[in-house]
Design goal:
Blueprint lengths: L1 H41 L1 H8 L1 H4 L5 E3 L5 H17 L1 H12 L11 H33 L10 E3 H18 L2 H10 L5 H6 L1 H15 L5 H34 L1
Parallel strand pairs: 1-2
Helix pairs in contact: 1-4, 1-5, 2-4, 5-6, 6-7, 6-11, 8-11, 10-11
């Protein structure tokens, strides 16, 4: 009986270690976001004025306030979002360090490559969305069918901010594709040869995914989402060959 109890305790030990690691990740991430949000609060008005430009540059489109609490809630949301952006390197370090625990022991150096690449890809996807895709999507959604019935578009700051965050987050996460694929190649679950053979299926999957997750129903936005995804897929294949060769050399030693 004692032996069985000891075996159960030993089996639960890895789970407890993972829970402790997860708690550490959440605490550090919360502190980082809180500090970033305090800084973001100081510049929240300027930040919203900038991120609202895709709407403010349009003619006959006006922001309105529908509740007394809305301006304060928008300011708080913008502050938190700014805090997340400012703390993004710390958040990525914590997330990837938790997802890839093996790197903490003998391959921790790869975090110094994964984390900056992940941050740059996330910001690159968000930038593509904000400067290229979002203006097209906003125009399509606000003015499609406008010729049938004359109307003046009105937007609340809350609805626009929610729409914008969904857009940016979708593109930012999609641009993490090369990191995920290259990690799978590195640990041996995928090979660049397999990725190359599945190009057609990958392209079809990306088009379907773009149709599903795209915040707007227009074809242009969906193509602007699927196109970069496939380009990143091709880049992942060529980088995968380099990583696979290095993995073979490491195994041969």
């Amino acid at each position: 009986m004692r032996r069985r109890k000891r075996q159960l305790n030993e089996a639960n030990l890895p789970l407890m270690e993972h829970l402790k690691a997860l708690r550490k990740v959440l605490v550090i991430s919360a502190y980082a976001i809180a500090i970033g949000s305090i800084i973001g609060w100081l510049f929240s008005d300027q930040v919203f004025a900038y991120i609202a430009r895709p709407v403010t540059v349009l003619e006959k489109v006006t922001f309105i306030t529908t509740t007394p609490l809305e301006p304060m809630l928008v300011k708080l949301k913008v502050s938190v979002v700014s805090g997340v952006v400012l703390s993004l390197p710390i958040l990525m370090w914590q997330i990837w360090g938790f997802i890839l625990p093996a790197l903490k022991q003998n391959e921790r150096k790869y975090l110094y490559i994964i984390v900056p690449s992940s941050v740059l890809l996330f910001l690159g996807g968000a930038a593509l969305c904000f400067f290229v895709v979002l203006p097209l999507g906003i125009k399509f959604l606000l003015f499609v069918g406008g010729g049938a019935i004359q109307s003046t578009p009105f937007l609340t700051k809350t609805s626009y901010l929610s729409f914008l965050l969904a857009f940016l987050l979708t593109f930012g996460l999609i641009f993490q594709l090369p990191i995920v694929l290259l990690i799978l190649v590195r640990i041996g679950l995928l090979s660049p040869q397999t990725l190359a053979k599945k190009r057609r299926w990958a392209l079809l999957t990306m088009v379907i995914l773009a149709v599903i997750v795209s915040p707007t129903p227009d074809l242009v936005t969906q193509l602007l989402m699927a196109g970069p995804m496939y380009l990143l897929y091709e880049v992942s294949i060529w980088l995968g060959y380099l990583i696979a060769r290095k993995r073979e050399k490491d195994l041969a030693l």
